[in-house]
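User: I'm putting together notes for a lab meeting next week and I want to include a structural view of one of the chains we've been expressing. I don't have a solved structure, so I'd like a prediction I can at least talk through. The sequence is below, exactly as it appears in our construct file.
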Amino acid sequence: MRSHEIDYWIHGEEMQFVEIELDPRETVVAEPGSFLMMDEDILMETIFGDGSGNEGQGLMGKLLGAGKRILTGEKLFMTSYTNQGSDKARVSFASPYPGKIIPLDLAKYGEKIICQKDAFLCAAKGVSVGIEFSKKLGRGFFGGEGFIMQKLEGDGLAFMHAGGFIYEKELKAGEHLRVDTGCLVAFTKNVDYDITFVGGIKNTVFGGEGVFFASLIGPGKVWIQSLPLSRLADRIITHSGGYNRKGEGSVLGQLGNILDGDGW
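Assistant: Thanks for the context. Below is the predicted structure for the 264-residue chain, given as C-alpha cells.
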C-alpha cells in the first residue's frame, strides 16, 4: 500500500467521532478544527496540502497543492498527526454537526471518490485530497456544488461526514436515480452525474423542492444524506429570529404572545 494502514472505531450516534489507532511512525491527516483528543505520543503538525506528496516538489508545488483546497472552499492548511512513540497510539476527530461519519476504503472503490466540498474529515497519510472539475455546464451552474467538487484518491482509508441519516445505494449499469442536489454526498468515479430540470410550472414555482435534481446513472455507488447542513441552517434561522418558544407547537401561539405582551 502507498497509504499508511490504520485501524479505527466510530463512536456515538448523532454526534459521532472517529478514533484512529496509529502504529509507530504512522500518520493521519485531518481538517483543521476536527481534532478531539490524542495520546501523548502523537505529534501534531500544520502542513500545506494533504501530505500525500502528490502536490509536487518544492515550495511552489506545495503552494499549488494547497491552493487547490482554496478552490474547494477548504482552509489553506491541514493538520497531520504522527505516532512518534514505540507503541500504538490513538487520536480522535469529531463530526462538525449532527450526522454520520462514513469510512471509505478507497482501494475498494477504484481508488477514487468524488464528494461535496465540505464532506472530508480525515484520512490516512498518502490519500490525496484534490479537486474535481465539472465538464458539464448544467452541473456546474445548478448542481449546488458549482464547477468544483472534491476528490479523494489513493489506496488508504478516508472518512467523510454528512448530515442526518446516510443512505448508501449501489446503482446497477444504466440504473437512474434522481436526488435533491443538496442531499448528494458522494459517488464513485464510474457514476454518470448531471443535473436535470424538475419540469412543470407548478412544480417549479410552487413545489418548494428546488428547480433541479441531481441525476445519477450507474454503475457505481452513491451516498445520500437526509439532512444537508444548508437545510439545517435554514430551519434554525427561520425559527430563531423574533420567535417566542412559549407559543411553539400551539395553534394559538401568536395570540398567546400578544396576550402575554410580547407582540408579534
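A couple of points you could mention at the meeting. The radius of gyration is 21 Å. The chain has one domain: 7-234.

User: Perfect, that's what I needed.
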